[in-house]
Amino acid sequence: MRTVKSSTPRVAVIGTGAIGSAVVHRLLGGGHDVAVWNRTAGRTTDLAAAGAVPQESVRDALSYGTLVFLTLKDYAATRHCLAEIDADLSAQTIVGLYTGTAEEARLTAQRVHDFGARYLDAGIQASPEMIGAGTAAILYSGSRDGFERHEPTLELLGRPRLVGEAPDAAAMWDLALFGVWYDAQLGLLRALDTARAAGIDVADFAQTATAQLGHVVTAADAAVSEVRQASYPPGPADLTEHLTVIRHLIEMRTGHRLGDGGLPEVAARIESLIADGRGGEGLTATVG
Ligand SMILES: NC(=O)c1ccc[n+]([C@@H]2O[C@H](COP(=O)([O-])OP(=O)(O)OC[C@H]3O[C@@H](n4cnc5c(N)ncnc54)[C@H](OP(=O)(O)O)[C@@H]3O)[C@@H](O)[C@H]2O)c1
């Protein structure tokens, strides 16, 4: 049995895929004793060579230390790993580090609470290379006590932020943030595809397109303030003018292989606001 260091809790990592392996390396580098378990046991060999201690079962890994990371593929894998457990884990804080829905976070929290453990759900806005490189943003929600007890260890992985004490808060932040990225990235791809199909040089087009993305970032503070104050000034265009352009876009995107980006729903929302006499307001009124 390895010696327990007094200042660094023993940690277990269940699931040693890309994210789990990066977590293990960083924890070892931070001076922790780290136990590992992986469904495919052969995938822990390199980690054992680096100093991690492979465990025979999920149960052994869960009991190894006071902090346990579930760095698994998804909720189904997490549910599968926790299915057989009946131990008292009241000394443990369990962190679910996987991308999932709010409902899945609530169900995992319920299961973990059944063992008496504290639960933190986590959203990883980072790639494996960013873990421990000072650039990873990791959002946590759930047990404040568990977060505060283990904050120094969580800091090894990336900037930790507790976004709420409800277990599903981090999943909602995480998915909403992925949504920002997908909407922007797919908006750019749809535009490049349309330009290319029209025989436009995409490199030339992209220069102006990226400036458009920059305008969204520049105007973000103003949009946030309008949403918070429930005040929707028209800015450069009001809803009636936006509707005209959006209808042109819907027509242009008909049959496009990436679809229309949900613009018909947006147009319907604007039409209903105009019918309510709000055509002179700005685009932020669509969420008001
Ligand atoms: N990679 C990224 O850049 C990134 C970024 C942000 C968020 N995430 C999220 O982080 C989580 C982990 O991602 P990853 O990249 O580390 O995935 P990964 O490399 O595919 O690793 C998945 C892990 O889950 C295990 N697993 C899958 N199904 C299982 C089951 N039914 N029972 C037990 N273990 C099971 C795998 O074990 P085996 O080795 O036996 O298959 C492996 O250890 C995912 O939710 C992902 O969406 C990843």
UniProtKB/TrEMBL annotation:
InterPro entries: 6PGD_dom2, 6PGDH_NADP-bd, HIBADH-related_NP60_sf, NAD(P)-bd_dom_sf, RedAm-like_C. It comes from the Bacteria. The lineage of its organism: Bacteria, Bacillati, Actinomycetota, Actinomycetes, Micromonosporales. Gene3D superfamilies: N-(1-d-carboxylethyl)-l-norvaline Dehydrogenase, domain 2 (1.10.1040.10), NAD(P)-binding Rossmann-like Domain (3.40.50.720). Residues 10-159 form the 6-phosphogluconate dehydrogenase NADP-binding domain. Residues 168-287 form the NADPH-dependent reductive aminase-like C-terminal domain. This is 3-hydroxyisobutyrate dehydrogenase. GO terms for molecular function: NADP binding. Signal peptide: none annotated. PANTHER family: CYTOKINE-LIKE NUCLEAR FACTOR N-PAC, OXIDOREDUCTASE GLYR1-RELATED.
